[in-house]
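Consider this today:
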Amino acid sequence: MTVISQVILKADDELRYPSSGELKNIKDFLQTGVQRTRIAATLAENEKKIVQEATKQLWQKRPDFISPGGNAYGERQRSLCIRDFGWYLRLITYGVLAGDKEPIEKIGLIGVREMYNSLGVPVPGMVEAINSLKTAALDLLSAEDAAQASPYFDYIIQAMS
């Protein structure tokens, strides 16, 4: 839910007009709209490049993942890992666009630890994977845009840790 929706719903629940502080939050949200859209577009347009670089970084750091017995051993398992990279990158763009971590939580993090544990995927390995994704993605952004996008990657990392 966006800042605007949150303010409206909260004020309506309390049968009042939005406060000056809430209106300032809306103003700040709108002022960062161009930046948030630019970040999301950069991530979306470069998804393949980001995923390839993140995958390369992860396999270099953790060759045991793609070795016999590793969770990403074999073409099918490897392609599932790469698919997840793209999925998490898309989740991050949702958060960036909304200016809020709620879409990430609602769409992608509820039950994620349990899911990976039930599939036998080591959660610490997923944390490393998201860190690789973060590095690859932020390298394509300006310092200012990277600072804006970084917390969304960190949110997923913390949720999995």
Remarks:
- The two ends are 25 Å apart (CA to CA).
